Amino acid sequence: MDEDVFEVPGRTEYLYLVQEEEAQEEVQYARHRHYISPLLVLSRRCVLLILLCVLALLSLASYLAYVAQTLPSGAAQVTTSCGAFRGRHINGAYSFKGMPYAAPPVGPLRWAPPAPPLCRGGVSDAGRFRSICPQVRPLKAGGKVLGQEDCLFINVWTPALQPAHRLPVMVWIHGGFLHMLSGGEPGYSPTEKLAADTEMVFVSFNYRLNAFGFMALNMLREGSPSNTSGNYGFMDQIAALKWVQENIHMFGGDPEKVTIFGQSSGGTSVWTMMMSPLAKGLFRAAVDMSGSYVYNATLEQAESDNLLFLQRTGCSDPSCLRRLPIADVLKAIPWQEFPSWAADEVMDLPLRGHFVGPKAVVDGYVLEAPPFEVWEKKKGNYNDVPFVIGTTEQEADFSPRAENISSWTWGDYSWFVTDKLRSFSETLPSDALELYPSSARCPTAQTAARSAASPPWCPTSGSPAQQRPRQEGRRGSGQPGYRYVV
To answer: What would be an example GO MF term here (predicted)?
Structure first.
């Protein structure tokens, strides 16, 4: 018997082949162990069970993902040009608060026109107001510093979210002397109930204030695309109105039915938006409540006056100014020096040579000329839209300069006007008293019916012409009557 051996590599199956002469048989001998995977010996039933478990886990994962994306009760979601935001549904309307409409004005963007917002992925929470802009309350050198520079946020209240509704839009510009407050001031901003009751969309926003929003300095012209300085807060307002035009349809509003309205310095802002070529076409109507239309400072005058601010900062270049802490910027404001930035005396009658310094200036960019010059001379590319102008009744009573103003008599009022206005001329007090005489009947013979800022006044006896201005009761005299509080 011949035997042939075939060699193969190790750990590989090999065969011994034995050939018999008489009967050719092939005998196979296995000389190694086989390792078989357990999966190969599982029954079909086990395999099926494993597959069912995998499918169940996948279904559970899908369900959890769905639940995570489902809005909780009372919430709503809107997608804007800068991402999606999750708001709230309360009192019959939706609210979305704290959405950025411009980039944080920090670093090189401090004292620069607003830049586009920094958009984020995913869904951002819009259920609360964000930071207010830096400010001092009360408006004095020793006031408390509040707010952060990352403050350019916009808020929307709407009764419906479908673009097809095309509801009228009211954009509120808050007041505060261009120094303080915000678009989310309690009792001083729109609410869900207001949107539901009026079936209109309401918008409010923050804008830069005081030195951060209105500091005009020749040094800050460096790098400016318009070669101007100041009026940054107004540029923020224009950026907010552009955001409204681009996004308000997603909140059920009609961009062609936008009305802007504001009170006090918010009314002044309305005047600015009316006259600014940069705001043309961003709204269809405007309402001013107790705003000012007096823009009596040129850019050059404001830049010269504000050198005192620059001196107090200790800076000699823009980069130094942009590195200053918020508190240092606010402390450097000339609160009481002439021209004063403090507004604590803004409700008082003026004294000759003592005025609050200008914040809004005619810079040739945001404002090409004072409002009446724009209208009378048809100068500039202004908004020719319906414009309601009014004065808020008894506005000065919000923060009266006189402690017992409600009990003034005509004599107190006459003395007050005469004491203040005679610094301009001897005849001005009598001219003013003629313009604002007393005509209302007094409920009693002892008190005046209304405040000094809201004539007509009631005389205690006789007619105004028969009464002589009372000199008693002056501050520190210890006598009854008028007490003037500084």
So the answer is: hydrolase activity
Q: Does 295 reside within a domain?
A: yes
Q: CB under 8 Å to 147, separation ≥6 — which residues?
A: 131, 132, 133, 134, 135, 182, 326
Is residue 178 within 8 Å of 262, Cβ to Cβ? no
Beta strands in 148-247 (DSSP E): 153-158, 167-173, 201-205
Q: The pTM is what? A: 0.74
Local confidence band at 440 (pLDDT 50, 70, 90 cut-offs): low
Rounded distance, CA 272 to CA 380, Å?
A: 12
Residues 266 and 172 in one domain: yes
Distance CA 272, CA 237 (A): 10
The answer to whether the beta carbons of residues 309 and 333 sit under 8 Å apart is: yes
Name the helix (H) or strand (E) containing 430. helix 428-435
pLDDT tens-digit map of 21-40: 444 444 454 455 555 555 55
Q: What domain count does the chain have?
A: 3
CA 163 to chain centre: 24
User: What sign results for the dihedral spanned by CA atoms 375, 378, 380, 386?
Assistant: positive
Q: DSSP assignment, residue 175?
A: -
Give the span between the Cα atoms of 60 and 65, in whole angstroms: 9
How many whole angstroms separate alpha carbon 173 and alpha carbon 263?
7
For the cut 90, the answer to whether the pLDDT of residue 147 exceeds it is yes
Task: Determine the structural domain holding residue 414 and report its residue range.
Answer: 396-466
Residue in the structure block whose two tokens are 């509120």: 172
Query: What pLDDT does 21 receive?
Result: 47
- Indicate whether 384 and 261 sit together in one domain: yes
Q: Are 238 and 278 in contact (CB under 8 A)?
A: yes
What φ, ψ does residue 318 adopt, rounded to 5°?
-60, -35
pLDDT in tens, 454-471: 444 444 443 333 333 333
Do 48 and 82 sit in the same domain of this protein?
Answer: no
